[in-house]
Target: UPF0358 protein BPUM_1375
Amino acid sequence: MASEILVDHRQKALALLKLDADKILKLIQVQMDNLTMPQCPLYEEVLDTQMFGLSREIDFAVRLGLVDQHEGKKLLDKLERELSALHDAFTKK
Model:
């Protein structure tokens, strides 16, 4: 039973981290849709703050043993790739 609870907590932790990553993507997409320049200081500040916050959440979950370090890095890498793709798409408009 204890191992089932641990697995459940791990699944919940990863699901919450993925939800936070999705929120960042949506926020950035909205900003990019409404800004004329992706190098806007506000855009960069929001991106930096949100990415830093998510990285700290992931680090905390890893330290608690709820998320594998590789899985956390994979989540951040995926988000960074998607944000880069959004930026590239915006600059090619």
User: Anything to note?
Assistant: The radius of gyration is 15 Å. The chain has a mean pLDDT of 83.
